[in-house]
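FW: tagging you since you asked about this chain on Friday. Here's the raw sequence from the shared folder, copied in full. Didn't touch anything.
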Amino acid sequence: MTTNTNAKADMNVNTNAQVTDTVTHTGTDSDTASRIDLAKSAPKVFRALIGFDAAAREGLDPALVELIQIRASHLNHCAYCLHMHTNDARKAGESEDRLHMVPVWREARHFFTEREQAALALTEAVTLVADGGVPDDVYAQAAAQFDEQELAHVLSLILTINTWNRVALSTAKVAGTDTRR
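HL: got it, structure written out here
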């Protein structure tokens, strides 16, 4: 097992106001040479994730999809996915103002609809599920904004982006190297 000597320690504050140390990969091609490419090493698994992601998005507003993916990527410290989804959101017409407010949406609620706020709160709760589960009030707020099928898709999208974040982080994907067409 090799140790990544090109890592930096950050001080982060989680939603419970606890200070935690995290190690963030700063990645270079030579650092990631020993990491697997999941698409090549497990193509069936990779295609299943792509199918899950596509099914989760079905019927959801594309702007909402990107907000969810951006927020989860912030929380998971996934620079690769954050770069990808902020660029996707810009291409889809999202404003810079709203993109900048996603991490602090609670203090900038006027930038987001009630549906978006409910989805962002649910995204935080599911992404940080180990910190106390998904509170009943957060779930109820989401259920009040989305019908049952929409809520299932929002929840599924949150699950997929958390999976993609973990794939990108564990395989040391480097922000700005997205090769999708």
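FW: The radius of gyration is 17 Å.
HL: agreed, and Residues 86 and 100 are 10 Å apart (CA to CA).
FW: great, closing this out.
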